[in-house]
Design brief:
Helices cover 17% and strands 35% of the residues. The chain has 302 residues and is of the alpha+beta class. The chain has a twelve-stranded antiparallel beta sheet with strand order 1-2-4-5-6-3-9-12-11-10-8-7. 38% of the residues are buried.
Length: 302
């Protein structure tokens, strides 16, 4: 983020810049910024506005209930010789008043490059004080589980749409290729850059993308390169760091020349669904080269 200001009509305008290079979010073979990089930038703008402009105390915790984003004009999100400036316009709608110690609200973001709309995002979250948060979390926190319990190596990077193995979040979950395991690493230097007691929202979003990519690649063959253009997720419980999250993916729409393919993903832990959502992917023609071979590789994690 570079700046933020509140307009007289209640909107909040936040300036962000998409870096040319990023440790995780790489441009595609055509040179477009990673859609999750745009989503992460908008999410950070929402967090900043929540505390700086919307009156939520800094000590409150933000619990995400729903997340949705869409890349509307990919051509506006091309990489270039310098970071890409993006204006994020935010509106906030409170839901259900302000009971003591908590606030529920929806934030809507419109992202623009050079004045032209390129993407949108919505976030519904609950802001709670520390006492309420501790009451919500304390009964659920399991004892830490050593990483040595991980039984499988990560999936190959190409199978989940990554160019580097250190960006892979998923492991095999047996013979059913529609299922995969997320073993979150609380010490990962890029996916998790702050002390948290649960799996961050954007880690789950990336896991959903990888599961959807894998499902479409399984159906379309090794030459297919489905690119995420929209994602909607509802979170029903915290995903804990101490155990694997089981992701199940199923294609719900095959897609046509004029529309993307849809994949529904469910995340469960200990037999309980913690998140579910649908991603929309547009398949690009195969080039035989990963994105990082075509262009140089170019968070506050909630």
């Amino acid at each position: 983020m570079t700046d933020g200001v509140r307009a007289s009509d209640g909107r909040v305008l936040v300036g962000v810049r998409l870096p040319r290079r990023h440790a995780l979010y790489e441009p595609d073979a055509e040179g477009h910024h990673d859609p999750l990089l745009m989503a992460e930038a908008a999410r950070q703008a929402m967090i900043h506005a929540t505390y700086a402009f919307y009156g939520v105390p800094l000590g409150h915790h933000l619990i995400v209930r729903d997340l949705g984003f869409r890349i509307e004009v990919p051509e506006l999100l091309r990489t270039g010789p310098a970071p890409l400036p993006v204006e994020v316009e935010l509106r906030r709608t409170e839901q259900g008043g302000r009971p003591a110690g908590r606030t529920r609200a929806r934030l809507d973001a419109v992202c623009r490059v050079a004045g032209r709309r390129c993407a949108s995002m919505t976030l519904t979250c609950l802001a709670v004080g520390s006492r309420i948060y501790e009451a919500l979390r304390t009964p659920a926190r399991p004892a830490p589980v050593p990483r040595a319990r991980r039984s499988d190596e990560p999936l190959p990077a190409a199978e989940v749409g990554r160019s580097r193995q250190d960006g892979v979040l998923l492991s095999p979950a047996g013979p059913d290729e529609r299922r995969a395991l997320l073993w979150p690493d609380p010490a990962h230097p890029a996916y998790v850059d702050s002390a948290l007691d649960h799996v961050p929202v954007m880690v789950l979003a990336e896991a959903f993308r990888q599961a959807g990519y894998r499902e479409l690649r399984r159906r379309g063959g090794e030459g297919s390169r489905p690119g995420l253009v929209a994602l909607d997720i509802s979170f029903t419980a915290f995903a804990e760091l101490g155990d694997a999250v089981v992701l199940s993916a199923a294609r719900t729409c095959a897609g046509t020349a004029g529309s993307g393919a849809s994949v529904h993903v469910t995340a469960a832990q200990g037999g309980q669904v913690v998140a579910a959502g649908t991603g929309v992917y547009v398949t690009a023609p195969a080039t035989g080269h990963p994105a990082s071979a075509v262009r140089p590789r170019p968070t506050d994690v909630w």
